[in-house]
């Protein structure tokens, strides 16, 4: 395959390829094995779909309707670039009897537009605004898979996991926040087999890049000059943005800035020493040396002492997550959660904060009992061994794959001390 993200190689007979894929799909759904002729991106997606408990005869759930849908998409960042998307993709969709679709970062379709007859056909498989087309809900499909892997991707015919979607072909590309790099959603073009061409994938990718450029132009003004933006979730080395300058901090400096951001009133040297180091033998001289190095990296006057504090207001992704969670925006928080706070840090105060943040989110997920949100956590690297979440997921989505993983985790919990799982055969 010249490009693994393109569905068909030049010269491939699409009819024969459909036959191959249908045989491969039936084999996978019956036995769980993937034929070698299935593209790796599709094979991986099929496995994720099966682990999430998606069945081949499922249907996309409709989660947002009427006023809720209108309010949600009116406030979504991609609403600001819909005129541009319609201008670039609308004629292509209408003239080719295709559909253009836009989804959010959780795979929910926000807009589905294009040829009226094609829309009526798509309505029958719930390819409609407000429906969730995440992989965890309907398996392999271009918008859901593009969001899952953060790459432009085509999905051709029987590469789709759900059978009722297999007559369709689609191409989608993710759209990112131009300031933070966070995935906002994806643009998709859906129609017949003629879309299984490199041009359709290049087309949606180009429109996605144009949308990102337009978002950059339409972004609100930068935060006040003194505001510091801190990004520390899901990364061992925090990123600091101050006065238009991006700074990548070392692990130790990341810990210091995270703690000072949590304590705008400041911390004494002894307080910071206890918060950072497990080893009581570490001396204040070591801490002062780290702070001196950090002061040289930051802009002048940003790090003060007696007590140690940041002299400008800090807006951190941790604080944003906490505010949204407190406001009940669980789906938004779970969908945008990039991972634990400074996951490699052993600083006592950071470990405590990391656990408190993660426990707050997972407790809310368990209480909400939303199968898609629970599956999103369970299949993430930080949730694959989370017994409580897997139990909650099994209660609301008792699929065979979910039960199997839960049984595996409970067996490990019940194993005697010192027992190790046998190595997998090579």
Unreliable runs: 419-426
What would CATH call the homologous superfamily of the largest domain?
Answer: GAF domain
Largest beta-sheet characterization? 5 strands, antiparallel
Terminal Cα span: 27 Å
In spatial order, strands of the major sheet run 2-1-5-4-3
Radius of gyration, rounded? 24 Å
Report the portion of residues in β strands: 5-15%
CATH class of the largest domain: Alpha Beta
Counted up, domains total 3
Number of strands: 11
Note the run of SSEs as H and E. Answer: HHHHEEHHHEEEHEEEHHHEEEHHHHHH
Q: Mean pLDDT, as a whole number?
A: 88
Number of helices: 17
Protein name: GAF domain-containing protein
Organism: Streptomyces gibsoniae
Pfam families: GAF
Domain OmpR/PhoB-type: 244-310
